[in-house]
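Table S2 (text version). Query chain:
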Amino acid sequence: MVDIDTSLDTVPKILERNVRKFGNSPAYREKEFGIWQTWTWAQANQEIMNLSKGLIDLGVKEGDHVAVIGRNRPYLYWSLVAAQHVGAVPVPLYQDAVAEEMEYILTHCSAKFAIVGDQEQVDKIYEIKDKVKELKEIIFVDPKGLRKYDRAHLHLFSDISGIGKADQGNLKSELDKRVAKISGDTTCVLLYTSGTTGKSKGVVQNHSAIIGASLSANDFDRWTENDHIVCYLPMAWVGDFMISVGQVMGAGACLNCPEGADTTQMDIREMGPSVFFGPPPLWERLKTSVNIRIEDASAIKRRAFHYFMNHAEKVGKRILEKESVGLIDRVKYSIGEFIIYGPLKNMLGLTKVRIAYTAGEAISSELFDFYRSIGINLKQLYGQTEASVFLTMQADDEVQSDTVGKPIKGVELKIADSGEVLYRSVGAFKEYYKNPKATKETKDKAGWVATGDAGYIDETSGQLRIIDRAKDVGKTKSGLMFAPKYVENKLKFFPNILEAVLFGSGQEKCVAFLNIDLSAVGNWAERNNINYASYQELASNSEVMNIMKEHVEEVNKALAKDSVMSGCQIHRFLILHKELDPDDGEITRTRKVRRGFVSEKYGDLIDALYKGAKQVSTKTEVTYEDGKKGYLEATLNIVDTQTFVLQSKSDAA
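Corresponding structure-token output:
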């Protein structure tokens, strides 16, 4: 285990330590053309130093913002670290962002340089180059398709590294001077929030915040140089930055990069990561893929699966948590491990995982318990971009599905009178870039940061329990609590439901939008010989609506047993004619619903739900893959559902 050394307060110091202690250990692995390539810490350090010197030669100055855009590749992670070494500030952007989104961030931070993965990212920047006037130079990793482009301000990654490699000492001398100036208070990275409620804010984090939070998290879960981590989430997301840069470097562990999005699941199986992170939508998709495969299996295999999964639900978590379990149950679970749970974990690529994390938003207890029941040590953590992620984590012997853990080392928590969660932390952000007003509203003079989340400390476990976003929690007209995310997560446990949006604050009744999961419902349609040509056609199918109605009523029945949440039962719903899409501004790049935007965009549909209409016709603007706009017209059916009377505890029993 890597000890917490307070003198290791910058990324350059951490890298130097890794070369000294773990020089011959694997640091980065990438699959390219079907072959895994490996760089040790010593080799990675040489790549980073060459690139750093090349950036100095290109004209990168201390304090410059350097945009980094592309899929998860060692070259781009080296770019983040190289920018830090020359005293510049890396600014990772979402690779799937449309040009308009990139324009906002590039102009807001006045980026002067960009390091990108391939032609797609170059083309997006070229599309907006007249609006991002401060951007001087672009470096690209993959030359495919770029041979005939004007190279006046366009540079091949290997050429820039080659300049550093050929250096006779002058560039190294300048690099050494810059590294010597870097302290814990130096800006380490500029990370942009997902922008759930409006424009993204640039979160300024210094080195000591990133390193301090990373080392505390590593210490909590005993990360070592022997751990292997897979990176597949967007590099612009704070979770990926903290894990793939902060924690991996802090532990001297190995970062594994898949060949591409299409091969990620297969590559994860080959990697065999020991630590794995997935936001709730990822765990939902994996569970959906399991259900699809089981439905396609023979009757004998389906019966065996359901039999042993029922047994896992009964004793699996207790075995994982090393509680006392009877001999017969333990033997039966071992048989299930051999024929069901083991192959299932292997299919998911999680056979060697000792710790799996989920965070970013709440996860349904049913989904959480499913993974723990088959022996995957899935744990929740809580944090935010402004905190360098890590605020609370769950110890192996204190895992609960409805809490997010206790504060880790260096974190203080308190609950405001309004119910909002506040914290002080070693990982707390310095400021919002160019936004002193928002900084002042979020962080007070004593260092307490407002999370925007409503929660409380559970008296029994001492763990933090998050209810919902503070701004989203309200009351129905009858005075009962309205907490939409809680209900939405229960709905999304069903493999057929990809997304759900609940409405009802200040209203007499709750209503909802649903998105079907095209892969799961499409698989069902094929098995039942139901033809469809599009998402819209399948979503409007009467049998699909009946299935969704059954799911909603099952959730309503569960809510009726909860005196706090019973008012959130869904009275009416409709299935949207399109998936909520980040390109259309309806969800963030991290798949968080922009509630205000959705409410405004689909106000006609919400009105129809509340006015008792049976159908509603609508016309919606959509963004196509090439960035062009168009319109989608549809007539949607509205479904009434059964609600249930609140049950007393004795009735529920």
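Notes on Table S2: The first strand starts at residue 26 and ends at 32. The mean pLDDT is 93.
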